[in-house]
Amino acid sequence: MGQAKVRGPYAKTPARREEIVRAARESFAERGYAKASLRDIAERAGITHAGLLHHFRNKDELLAEVLADRDSEEWQQGLDDVDSPDQLEPYLTRLIRHHQRAPELMRLWIELAAAASRPDHPAHTYFVERYERSRAQFADGFPDEKARARLREGVGPENAAVLFQAVLNGLQLQWILDQDLDIVGPVTDFVRLLFERDDAEDAR
User: Fold this and answer.
1) Around Cβ 145, how many Cβ atoms within 10 Å?
2) Which of 97, 136, 101 is nearest to 30 (CA)?
3) Residue-by-residue pLDDT tens, the chain, 204 positions
4) What would the DSSP string read from start to end of 6-22?
5) pTM (predicted TM-score)
6) Of 46, 59, 146, 166, most Cβ neighbours within 10 A?
7) Residue 136: CA count within 13 A, CB half-sphere
């Protein structure tokens, strides 16, 4: 028999990091950041505490990776699901409902984003680049005059992108403070305010 491939607790592979991030995401969502321990996360990932520390130096670093991983998933989902303003409203409804099923992760994202406003914060560059990329993606959805005509008169793609982020993030913050608040309705109303009706769609 050939020698089995060694996969010890210190095997620094992308697959092992993914296992740790997935375990941390579950632990943070179930227990909250303060109560989640690195030992619990290591156990969920099937490695030792020392093995986890070989990949991530502390819980703060792991939290940042969990939230970045969630961002990456949602970024790809948005690219796959939305290629016109008409698809934005149902996509946002699904996204918000998904976030509301894991309110602790929503709270942690808001807290980390606020902390990262400090230029010396380790996640500062990530959040700056994240918002720049998000605004650019939104604005790039209006490549020509016909597409830009879908926006309300006087509203440019760049300003619409800034408003879109402000409304989406602000409403989620309000929901974290008051989870009886309906934020799906205001988000869908905002999309309707932002875009003119598609006459071709109305004619169907």
Assistant:
1) 7
2) 101
3) 233 333 444 445 888 899 999 999 899 888 888 889 999 999 999 999 999 999 998 888 888 888 888 888 887 887 788 877 888 899 999 999 999 998 988 888 898 889 889 999 878 888 898 899 889 988 888 877 888 888 999 999 999 999 999 999 999 999 999 999 999 999 999 999 999 765 544 444
4) P--TT---HHHHHHHHH
5) 0.74
6) 59
7) 6
